[in-house]
Amino acid sequence: MSLEHLKETSIVIVGAGPAGLAMAIALSGMGFRINVIDPKIEKDIKNPSYDGREIALTHQSKLYMEKLGIWQDIPEKSISYIKKAKILDDDSTESILIGDLIGKDSEIGFLVSNNVIRKSSYDTLLILQEKNKDIKFFFEDEVTDVRNFDDFSKVELKSGKMLEAKLVISSDSRFSKIRTLLGIPSEMFDFGRDMLVCSMKHSKTHDQTAWEWFTYGYTLALLPMREGFIDGQYESSVIVTMNKQEINNLLSLDKQRFNEEITKKFKNFFGDMVLTGPCYAYPLISVYPKKFVSERYALIGDAAVGMHPVTAHGYNFVLKGIKSLSELIDEAWQAKEDIASVSLLNKYNRKHRAATKPLYLFTKFILAIFTKEVPSAKKIRKIFIKLGRLPFIQKTFTKLLMKE
Predict the structure, then answer these.
(1) Is 71 inside a domain boundary?
(2) Please, which of 119, 134, 235, 355 could form a disulfide with 226 given CB 3.0 to 4.6 Å?
(3) Nearest 5°: CA angle at 9, between 25 and 142?
(4) pLDDT by residue (tens digit) across 368-379?
(5) Any domain includes 347
């Protein structure tokens, strides 16, 4: 077993996904030695494949991504602008329209493919690695053990390497092995549904509106991508949420029958819909740990909050957590204090819970009333739609989407 002992104050980041990379970017240049661990090969981190997921971003997230240097590297053609959001209940003619009260040239948010964010984050980190000489990658490796001592932790890797760290930060997915290893219990909820995502062209405009359509037995969503093609077509990210068997049945259809089925499910609202790429399916499981910290250890990203995508705040919460934790670390470092003290980590825990728990619980409430088919739930959702049409509530929803 080799020991990579570093004289500088070291931080270990577990996971080189969007959260881990953004965390390393936020910390680079502060004076630490940053070690990033990921089981993937470097090629998959450098040029991530498209996985069907489109990430909705708030204005605050865009501003923070600009501060980190990530946004500037995203091609303009890869950014879609969301002007409005619309929530519909089955065949109801009533709906909640969010964003209708802002200026016509404004947007409530942005849409960028997950792989584009990952690539831009990695490219930005490579620039900082060259500039600050404080980042080291351990690709094709993973953490197998973490042992805490008085003022540091020893992190053992599968390769046999041993790293010393003042702080270990996990961003290794909502099923975090390190979170489990360190004994942090989590509320994990399986919605019993899978999410199918794909890109589709359609003949009728999406009007740069994000659509959420709660029908009985399944849920539909449409996120606007390109405004229009030369042939007058539009493109959107389409999301269908049903039980696993129904999703598998959809995936088994040939392209023509699939197009017909999706067009039918959307009740021809967007005209004929045609696949423009492969389909992807993901299980819907939310995760919320009892705490985001342990001794010399902090959770960020999906390892901290694994959200159901219905409120589209997953990556926005990722960035909020990174901002809070990195600022606390910087303050402690400037004051020559321990960057992983109990008080610092507890403060991060309180801040991130305050920032995420209300919307996490609200999301569960929305799903409870909009996905259940019992008469009481149907009555409540009709009331919810009516209340959501009130101007002051629409303004509240709009501010939530634009500023969170």
Answers:
(1) yes
(2) 235
(3) 65
(4) 666 666 666 666
(5) yes
Count of the separate structural domains present in the chain: 1
Those residues with Cβ within 8 angstroms of residue 260's Cβ, 6 or more apart along the chain or in another chain? none
Return the H-helix or E-strand segment holding 375. Answer: helix 375-388
What is the residue-averaged pLDDT of the chain?
A: 87
| Burial state string for 216-226 with b = 16 or more CB within 10 A and e = fewer than 16 | eebbbbbbbbe
**Does residue 13 lie in a domain region?**
yes
- In this structure, what CATH number is given to the domain that contains residue 73? 3.50.50.60
Q: Would you state the pLDDT for residue 309?
A: 78
Q: Which pLDDT tens digit goes with each residue over 128-168?
A: 999 999 999 999 999 999 999 888 999 999 999 999 999 99
Question: Mapping DSSP to helix (H, G, I), strand (E, B) and coil, where does residue 132 land?
Answer: helix
From the CB of residue 166, how many other CB atoms can be counted at a distance below 10 Å? Answer: 21
Examine the pLDDT at 2 and tell me if it is beyond 60. no
| Positive or negative: CA dihedral 272, 275, 279, 284 | negative
Task: Tell me if residue 164 falls in helix, strand or coil.
Answer: strand
Q: At residue 189, what are phi and psi to the nearest 5 degrees? A: -120, 120
Euclidean distance between CA atoms 279 and 222, whole angstroms: 14
Domain around 364: 3-188+285-403
The per-residue pLDDT for range 42-95, each reduced to its tens digit, is 999 999 999 999 999 999 999 999 999 999 999 999 999 998 888 887 665 666
Look at residue 109 and tell me if it is in a domain.
yes
In angstroms, what CA-CA distances link 354 with 154, 278, 291, 305, 349? 31, 38, 12, 12, 9
